[in-house]
């Protein structure tokens, strides 16, 4: 970019304080949450409307300037990093709730609305937005762009299941709409669903119509300690087959709980066992929930659970789930640097995958910590650098990742369950995917963005 480009962008925006360049670009704009992929944009534009985005995209398209969309920057695979520099469009100021339609049970929001603010807004009105990714300060636009999942996916599904309609700015600046408020839609190709999970490579989301549910009136969690990880994780398929579907099924190990205690400065309700399952049940009455969890509790005890700790007060719920939400930051704080794997395998194979990751550190001689959404097969493994030299780290980290992704392929799994591919995981996607499918994806990218200016070097290009 040059001075002429900058002046033109400033003329579109009008407010120079929303156009950052040179030394005014904060270091945070050069990376996402994991910090492993770094590159500065030439200019950051804090946009406030679809019309501003449209005008900038049209100029960028006509002048072959790369554009990177960005929400809160909480991603973990470099999806929002400006690899070709150029223009970064930051949507954080587009943070308004535009409409709550209680007749159709939908809410229409701008992409910069934070997940935690959306959840609070609808719950105050006795409504419920089920997707629950761990990072509550992520934006809805970012959640849609990565098809974020979260802990409640076992019962309620993922972000894609709650997106009814999208307003999108295409790479050439055209503003268009995919989907709407309708519940059913067999009208042509499902372009709305194609946008969900596309990581900002096909268009920029400027408005989203989201499905809501009535708010469950009661929730109870079970914290279940087991003597070993193997016993805990081998219980998960039995829980799933029991037909008593929990809202969430999480697994965790004692060492991660200890990290969270240190990070939060608070004791976890129990840290004496090697491994735990954390289950959540929700419904409209205590009796309904108890009927579900009693069957599951019996299964856990039959499989060797040490105890069944029932969390039926708000204070206990908060202490448990706040610790669970802090796992990522706690692990990050326990080492000098880390990289992460976000594999997903069929639910029937989750015990085999977890046990494989747990024992892998002995083979590759590097610390690995893991936790995850055991009920939907999405596992998070964190490879820790500690005091390794850069050379040792690169070799051992790559060996660990290669082994994990190879095992996931063997179990008919996928590279990512919810974090996406971005820049960091491209090579693993290309290794795991049928070349025919990759060519189809390239054709879709070509149809939307023939000049390849929108978020280049992401996913597969």
UniProtKB/TrEMBL annotation:
Required co-factors: FAD
Coiled coil start-end: none
Classification lineage: Bacteria, Bacillati, Bacillota, Clostridia, Lachnospirales
UniProt keywords, alphabetically: FAD, Flavoprotein, Oxidoreductase
PROSITE patterns on file: FAD_PCMH
Domain FAD-binding PCMH-type: 37-215
Annotated organism of origin: Lachnoclostridium phytofermentans (strain ATCC 700394 / DSM 18823 / ISDg)
Signal sequence bounds: none
InterPro entries recorded: FAD-bd_oxidored_4_C, FAD-bd_PCMH, FAD-bd_PCMH-like_sf, FAD-bd_PCMH_sub2, FAD-linked_Oxase-like_C, FAD-linked_OxidoTrans_Type4, Oxid_FAD_bind_N, Vanillyl_alc_oxidase_C-sub2
GO molecular function terms noted in the UniProt entry: FAD binding; oxidoreductase activity
One Pfam family hit: FAD-oxidase_C
Name of the protein: FAD linked oxidase domain protein
């Amino acid at each position: 970019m040059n001075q002429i480009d900058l002046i033109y962008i400033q003329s579109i925006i009008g407010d120079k304080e929303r156009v950052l360049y040179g030394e005014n670009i904060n270091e945070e704009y050069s990376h996402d949450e994991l910090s492993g992929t770094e590159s500065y944009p030439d200019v950051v534009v804090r946009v406030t409307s679809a019309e501003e985005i449209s005008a900038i995209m049209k100029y960028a398209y006509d002048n072959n300037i790369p554009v990177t969309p960005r929400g809160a920057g909480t991603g973990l695979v470099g999806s929002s990093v400006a690899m070709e520099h150029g223009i970064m469009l930051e949507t954080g100021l587009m943070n308004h709730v535009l409409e709550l339609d209680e007749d159709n049970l939908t809410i229409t929001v701008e992409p910069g609305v934070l997940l935690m603010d959306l959840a609070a807004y609808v719950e105050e009105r006795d409504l419920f937005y089920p997707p629950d990714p761990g990072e509550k300060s992520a934006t809805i636009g970012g959640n849609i762009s990565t098809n974020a999942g979260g802990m409640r996916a076992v019962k309620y599904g993922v972000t894609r299941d709650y997106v009814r309609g999208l307003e999108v700015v295409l790479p050439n600046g055209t503003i268009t709409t995919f989907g709407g408020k309708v519940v059913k839609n067999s009208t042509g190709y499902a372009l709305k669903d194609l946008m969900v999970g596309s990581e900002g490579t096909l268009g920029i989301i400027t408005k989203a119509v989201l499905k809501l549910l009535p708010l469950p009136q009661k929730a109870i969690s079970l914290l279940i300690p087991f003597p070993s990880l193997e016993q805990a994780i081998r219980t998960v398929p039995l829980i799933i087959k029991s037909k008593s579907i929990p809202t969430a099924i999480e697994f965790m190990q004692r060492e991660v709980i200890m990290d969270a205690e240190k990070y939060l400065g608070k004791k976890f309700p129990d840290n004496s066992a090697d491994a735990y399952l954390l289950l959540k049940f929700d419904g409209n009455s205590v009796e309904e929930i108890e009927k579900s969890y009693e069957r599951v509790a019996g299964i856990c005890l039959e499989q060797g659970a040490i105890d069944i700790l029932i969390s039926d007060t708000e204070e206990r719920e908060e202490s448990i789930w706040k610790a669970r939400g802090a796992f990522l930051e706690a692990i990050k704080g326990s080492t000098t640097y880390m990289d992460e794997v976000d594999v997903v395998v069929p639910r029937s194979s989750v015990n085999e995958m977890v046990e494989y990751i747990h024992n892998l550190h002995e083979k590759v001689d590097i610390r690995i910590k893991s936790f995850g959404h055991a009920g939907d097969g999405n596992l998070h493994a964190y490879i820790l650098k500690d005091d390794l030299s850069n050379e040792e780290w690169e070799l051992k980290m790559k060996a660990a990742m290669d082994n994990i992704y190879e095992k996931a392929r063997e179990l008919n799994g996928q590279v990512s369950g919810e974090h996406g591919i971005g820049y960091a995981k491209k090579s693993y996607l290309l290794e795991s995917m049928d070349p025919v499918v990759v060519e189809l994806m390239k054709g879709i990218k070509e149809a939307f963005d023939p000049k390849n200016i929108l978020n280049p070097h992401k996913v597969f290009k």
